[in-house]
User: Fold Phytoene dehydrogenase from Richelia intracellularis HH01.
Amino acid sequence: MRVLIAGAGLAGLSCAKYLIDAGYTPIILERRDVLGGKVAAWKDKDGDWYETGLHIFFGAYPNVLQLFKELNIETRLQWKKHTMIFNQPNAPGTYSQFNFPDLPAPFNGIAAILRNNDMLTWSEKIRFGIGLLPAMIQGQKYVEAMDKYSWSEWMRKQNIPSRVEKEVFIAMSKALNFIRPEEISSTILLTALNRFLQEKNGSKMAFLDGSPTERMCQPIADYITKHGGEIRLNSSLKEILLTPDGIVEGFLVRGLSGKPDYVENADLYVSAMPVDPLKVLLPKSWQQQDFFQRLNGLKGVPVINVHLWFDRKLTDIDHLLFSRSPLLSVYADMSNTCREYSNRDCSMLELVLAPAKDWISKSDECIVQAVLAELEKLFPQHLTGNNKVKLLKYHLVKTPLSVYKAIPGCQECRPSQETPISNFYLAGDYTMQRYLASMEGAVLSGKLTAGAITKAHSEVNSSNL
Ligand SMILES: Cc1cc2nc3c(=O)[nH]c(=O)nc-3n(C[C@H](O)[C@H](O)[C@H](O)COP(=O)(O)OP(=O)(O)OC[C@H]3O[C@@H](n4cnc5c(N)ncnc54)[C@H](O)[C@@H]3O)c2cc1C
Assistant:
C-alpha cells in the first residue's frame, strides 16, 4: 500500500520509518530543499552549520532514544552531566546549578532542588513542594485538568510565592514553549516536572554530535529509501483533492520552475505539516467539521535562533545554560557541546531569543546588537572593558510560526492522529500525544500515525476475509 505523506520533519520521517517496518510504501513530499522542518540546518560558505533551533535531547525521550537505537546511531548523542545551570542576573557572569545525584527518582530531583540555595529559600521550596502535591498524587489526570490555568494562575492558586516563578519558571516557560508564565498553560510545566521528577534520567540532557539534518534526519531518510520508500524535496502540497464522497482522491503538488502542477495518488494520505499550513489547505467541506474546526485554537509561536562566532573562548561550560535574561531563553557554547562544531580556541554561541513576538520583524543587525548588549550581563569579563572579544560573524534563523503556542485550553484543540476522513491521517508535534511540542512529541506522533494506519488497515483486511 502506498502512503503519501506531506512534510519531512521528524513526524513525517518517523511515520514513514514505522510504515516501512509495517510493510507499507511511504512517499514523502517536502516543500523545502532540506529535511527536518524545525530541526533543519544549513552550511554557510565557510562550512559552518547554523540551525533552526538549539536542540536538546532528554533522558525522558523514550521514542527518540528507541529510534536512534533502531538506526544504530545512539553514539551520536553526547550526554552531559546531570545538572541544570542557570545564570544569576544579580551576579553577572556567575551560575547556579541544580545537581542531580546518583539516586533513584524522585529522590535525585528532590535532592537537586533542596541542595540549591542560590535561587530559592527553604520556605519557598517547601511551599512549592506542597503546591505540587496534587500533581504528584493524582498524576496525569490532574495535569490535564489544569490546562484551564496559565502557569502564573496555577502558582497563585497553589499559594506558591511569586519569587519562585521569577527565579525559576520564567526561564522554564521560555525554554519549553518560547513564552512567559502568564501565557503558558500550566499543563506544559506540570508535564515536564512530572517527567523530570518521575524518571531518574528524565532531565539528563544530550546534544547531537553535529547538525540535526545530517546526523539525525539523513539516517532516517536513508532507512526509508533503502527499504523502498521515497522522499521528494522541493515538492509542496498545494491542494488536497477530494472524491465526491469527501475523502482524499489525491494530493495536488506544486510544479517548480515553470513546470505544471501534478496530481499524486496513493491508497492513504498523511499530513505531517505543521498545523498552520494544514489549516490553510483544509478542503472547504472539511472546515465545518468539529474535528477540523478545533484546529483553529492552535497557532505557531514566533522564535529566533541566533548564532554568534567570536574570536576567542567565552566559556568552557559544556552544557545548556538558562540565561534568565529578558531577551533570551536558553543558550550553549556549541564549540564545547557539539563534536562537529568543536573549536578549542573560539566560541560559537547558539542562543534562543524568546518571546520573539516584538523582534521577529526586526532586522538581523538590530537583533544582534540587542543580543550583544544582553551578553554583556552574561559574560561581563569578555564583553566589557578594554579587551573585548570580537564578533566574527553571525547567522539568525527566524521562525514566525514554530511549535504551537501552548496557552490554556489548547489541549482540547489537539487532534488525534486518526481523522473523520477514512483515508486521511495527521502526524506532527501538535497532534495529541503525551510529549507536547518537542522532538519526542513529533517522533511519537509519527509512530502513532503509522500504528493507527496499520491497525485500521489490518481490521479492513480481516473483515474482508
Ligand atoms: C528554536 C527551536 C528550539 C527547539 N528546541 C527543542 C529542544 O531543545 N528539544 C525538543 O525536543 N524540541 C525542540 N524544538 C521543537 C522541535 O523542533 C519540534 O517540536 C519538532 O521538530 C516538530 O516536528 P514536526 O515534524 O512535527 O514539524 P516540522 O518540523 O515543522 O515539520 C513539518 C514539515 O512540513 C513541511 N511542509 C509545510 N508545508 C508543506 C507543504 N505544503 N507541502 C509539503 N511539506 C510541507 C515543512 O517544510 C516541514 O519540513 C525546538 C523548536 C524550535 C523552533
